[in-house]
Amino acid sequence: MQRLKHSDPDFETRFARLVDGRRESDEDVSRTVADIIARVRAHGDTALAEYTIRYDKFAPASEDDWQISAATCEAAYKALDGDVRDALQLAADRIRAYHEAQLPANRDYTDDVGVRLGATWRGVDAAGLYVPGGRAAYPSSMLMNAIPAKVAGVERLVVTTPTPKGEVNDLVLAAAHIAGVDEIWRVGGAQAVAALAYGTERIAPVDVVVGPGNAWVAEAKRQLYGVVGIDMVAGPSEILVIADGENDPDWIAADLLSQAEHDPTSQSILITDDANFAEQVEDRVDVQCAMLSTNRTARESWDANGALIVVEALEDALPLANRLAAEHVELAVADPEALMKGLRHAGSVFLGRHTPEAVGDYVAGPNHVLPTGRRARFASGLSVLDFMKRTSFIALDEKSLASIGPAAVTLAHLEGLPAHAKSVELRLK
Amino acid sequence: MQRLKHSDPDFETRFARLVDGRRESDEDVSRTVADIIARVRAHGDTALAEYTIRYDKFAPASEDDWQISAATCEAAYKALDGDVRDALQLAADRIRAYHEAQLPANRDYTDDVGVRLGATWRGVDAAGLYVPGGRAAYPSSMLMNAIPAKVAGVERLVVTTPTPKGEVNDLVLAAAHIAGVDEIWRVGGAQAVAALAYGTERIAPVDVVVGPGNAWVAEAKRQLYGVVGIDMVAGPSEILVIADGENDPDWIAADLLSQAEHDPTSQSILITDDANFAEQVEDRVDVQCAMLSTNRTARESWDANGALIVVEALEDALPLANRLAAEHVELAVADPEALMKGLRHAGSVFLGRHTPEAVGDYVAGPNHVLPTGRRARFASGLSVLDFMKRTSFIALDEKSLASIGPAAVTLAHLEGLPAHAKSVELRLK
Per UniProt, where does Zn(2+) bind (chains A, B) (predicted)? Predict the structure, then answer.
């Protein structure tokens, strides 16, 4: 963990290192992934079977074994404890409500020269969702990725997930049941992404692939971008807490640790205008961390990537926050609204002392799939828009074509495209 | 050009070939582009200068020579003929109006348990626009790419364009003046995209890179996706005309040729329910083509990629059109509205007999940067959204946290994330 003081002479150097520091792996897997994609494209299910044995040590015993059935998911749902089922259902309902309100409006209007213009939004026909195997598979992620697709109107929502040595994650299956997933295939890695993009004999191709994954999965999505649509590449998670000295240091320490416990590459940063408060938080982090079952991960993350930054005034936090462009930003201050106005880059903002980031991970409603690694400068959280596309339309009649057509003829000639000009001229006669 | 009849026994085989046929180059430039990006990242302007001499045969004579000034663009604008200036201005005004109406609404509401939720859209700080050199540089493309960025609120809009042997395109500069471009740098290729993404000593980095380019530029954008945001990879242009026999065959022939004249890889397809009409169009294509100054390109495109498809009834065109998912779809029929309802995948639709696709290229208002190569299945035309990002926000108070917080605690424990649970539990006490 680093301690920075805004007034220190070396502040800029150290802060810049914090902003530019890459916590993402640079692993060059592009050649291997290109090979996997080419093989799946050429050999379909045969290639999938080979990779699934090699990487997941799993060989389906029968044709049915390639999929996890809707009945299995329903059974997993029914086997949940009541309070767990209620919590997942509350989360699903709230996520659905938020994303339904996010649906974009179609446009259709006629302008002052009589040209009818507009745009129609539609869900894609089919979407694929990559769900990692093992520790990284969370039921909450299933809800956050699958529900927006269904709200967008996607008719066929396909999950691929590795089942190492045949092992499945019942919580994730229960969440798939709640979200209304249509197919689940027991394949993972770059080969699963290739199968989703190009299709195989068993798996029909999809139009969009989303979901988190390791370096191979991320690289496969990148290479297949254009064959299908993809969501933003996700990196290690991060939180920036901007807090004044009036907070309970235990609360803020827990918030920092809630990010740190995800992964050793996670990052937790506190900016405060109160140096004493920073010390108290540091102390509470150490105490709480020792008691966590996730102690090892949280400790490693906090030691390697954590930072406490002391500024003279809370407003001084804003330019720093905008440079960090963090995935999650908590504003634990008396007037969070005022600070938010000046915050240009953030994935999601948590306002006030009673909004711990973790409520956003589960039940608040907005998506928890958010831009990481300074990408909030240009990227947004996952939304229904990732599963939709827009078709614009134009309708002219004789009169409106007479009004704007001649300008099109002029520009077409200017650009050396006579057939463009001709197609308008013929109709102007 | 191919003639297909829906009722022919080999129709499906031949149509599938049309749908799956790739007209895009498979050129493997990834290694070269990776090297260029690495060198620009490491050596900045020195690398840019080397590549600019090597590929563009251009060595700036002075520091000023790296840029094209606002004064130069203004002079180019003032030197335009009156009718050209008016046409460009009309186009710019109509593009601006359409894209202003496209700006997304912010959200801010409090739900029934007292949780305040919402999302704020903001333009990115800086955007880069790649403008090809030579033949492919069109003033209309400058307007279509630059105006949405400015409407989105982008403060710094940076153009990079190669100037082979120092040559500049005055029409493009005039359009840059109209669109309000802030900087123009005389660099091109993958090295320009790398400079935009990572910045150099002279060029400050941007957040989003858009614009068409050759295979090197497209590959550079793909490799830098995630460092910056990018627009969809664009392939060869295409038009699908669905027309009944009541059209003037000359009009439809001109529409098909307006696409064919772009590039030998362009594709023009007519689907009609009238076999005689198809023959008439074929005849008129040949006659008109012979008279075009773009004859060679149009001929090559039509011969290699054109198709005339005869169906029994117009409704039969819809499933075919949805499989083609074309960039441009003209509905030259009596009731275009009815057909549009069944058209699920298209970049842009042109309704009725008086809406030639070329009006959309220039003056209608909607963007002419549209998804190609079947990507309308999942992608949309360029819009203000490509230059904006959304920040979600959440605000709870004691009462609303008491309402939904316990479910978050349950789910956090379920996922083995005790610090997540703790951050909520502490506030529930």
Answer: 259, 262, 361, 420
